[in-house]
Amino acid sequence: MDVLSVLLLLAGFEASVATVCPVGWHRYGKACYFVIKELNSWHKATSICAASHASLAVPNSMEEQTFISELLQREFYPSDFQRGAWIDCDDIDQDGVWQNCPLRGDETNAYQNWAKGNPSNQYSGADCVLMASIAGGIWWNQRCINPRYATCELAIIDYDPLFCLQIGSDGRITSPCLTDNHVLMELQAQGLVSCGKACLSHPECSSFNLKDHGQGKMVCQLNDLALQNAAAEDVVVIENCYGLDL
Ligand SMILES: [Ca+2]
Ligand SMILES: [Ca+2]
């Protein structure tokens, strides 16, 4: 048995590797989607998705638009669903420069689904984009503070399916790490497997933290305690830190 399969077994990874979407998330193409079933401002919805290492969903094709619309309606059809859902599209940084959703006339191959007269700069603060629940999910720009539903989108290539992703009771991905008090050793890491190997080869290592600082910079911390045995004060949720028990 090679180290990889040992890791999989020890991590209690029950799903097959092909089933890469976490429980409660829905696969479409190369991404997983999660419906936030409560009303939030655009910023709050964005931060909820970011906490699961995801982004607000943005439809990049008519097919994806249809998928997201149907998912919202199938998963969740509240009586006030006409409020629609935020998408990852805004001109917060610079009025008229829309992020992730090209303007009509730009990039002719890029998908867009603006409602007639949108985007509009008529109302100040209407810097965030909503996908309607009707009319083919057309897009409107609205004030970012409006309470709306939302869907998160997680590109499958953005995370390693070997991670034993921890799912909170609300279905969102959490990634608790042990605090620095339990670190036996800190190493530079290439990724999950090399960090896991380092932990396996250390006699006192029970779990490890993989801190991803982006651009290939990863830190691997070997811990003297298993996450499953950790008290609440030993565990922290830090952005881009993944904890995994051996
Ligand atoms: Ca998308
Ligand atoms: Ca604007």
Shape: elongated
- Strand proportion: 25-35%
**Low-confidence parts lasting 5 or more residues at pLDDT below 50?**
1-19, 158-163
CATH C-level label of the largest domain: Alpha Beta
Question: How far apart, in Å, are the first and last alpha carbons?
Answer: 16 Å
Please identify the structural class as seen in this structure. Answer: alpha+beta
Plain-language structure description:
The chain is an alpha+beta fold. It has 2 domains: 3-15 and 175-245, Hepatocyte Growth Factor (3-Layer(bba) Sandwich), CATH 3.50.4; 26-156, Mannose-Binding Protein A, Chain A, CATH 3.10.100. The protein has 4 helices and 15 strands. It has helices at 3-10, 42-51, 62-75, 192-200, and strands spanning 26-28, 31-40, 55-56, 85-90, 128-131, 139-142, 148-155, 166-167, 173-174, 176-178, 183-189, 207-212, 218-223, 235-237, 241-245. Strands 1, 2, 3, 4, 5, 6 and 7 form a 7-stranded mixed β-sheet that branches. A 4-stranded antiparallel β-sheet has the order 11-13-12-15, covered by helices on one side. β12 (207-212) and β13 (218-223) form a beta hairpin. The chain starts with a helix and ends with a strand. The model is unreliable at 1-19 and 158-163 (pLDDT under 50). The protein binds calcium ion (2 copies). One calcium ion binds at residues 57-60, 64, 153. This is C-type lectin domain-containing protein. Residues 28-153 form the C-type lectin domain. It comes from Patiria miniata. Keywords: Disulfide bond, Signal. Residues 1-18 form the signal peptide.
